[in-house]
Amino acid sequence: MSNLKIAIERKKEIVNHYGGKRLAKMLGVSHPAVSKWKVIPPFRAYQIAQLGDYDIEYMRPDLQIAPLR
After folding, report:
1. Tell me, what's the pLDDT at 67?
2. Which domain holds residue 37?
3. Domain for residue 12, yes or no?
4. Which residue of 9, 18, 39, 68 has the smallest Cβ count within 10 Å?
5. Is the pLDDT of residue 66 over 80?
6. Which helix (H) or strand (E) element contains residue 59?
7. Which residues contact 59 (CB under 8 A, 6 or more apart)?
8. b/e 30-60 (16+ beta carbons within 10 angstroms → b)
9. What is the pLDDT at residue 64?
10. Burial class (CB in 10 A: 0-12, 13-18, 19+), 11
């Protein structure tokens, strides 16, 4: 399975974990905005990672993220 397909599946998993409306409220966006995502946008992945349940690399394995220095 490609990394993009994995990212698509993990978006579904994460939205199901939090609930679409709750996740939207936590991120300060509308529920329809979350519903339109094919994958979690990079900045939103960062915000979700800050909640502590998921790592960015898990949510978006299709991205190359440089380590912080």
Report:
1. 66
2. 3-59
3. yes
4. 68
5. no
6. helix 56-59
7. 7, 10, 11, 14, 40, 45, 48, 49
8. eeeebeeeebbeeebbebbbeeeebebebbb
9. 80
10. buried
> For 2-54, how does the pLDDT look when each residue is reduced to its tens digit (9 = 90+)?
999 999 999 999 999 999 999 999 999 999 999 999 999 999 999 999 999 99
The identity of residue 38, as a single letter, is K
pTM of the model: 0.86
Quote the number of domains for the chain.
Answer: 1
What CA–CA distance (Å, rounded) separates 28 from 7?
22
> Does residue 53 form part of some domain?
yes
Report pLDDT for 1.
82
Looking at the domain assignment, is residue 41 inside a domain? yes
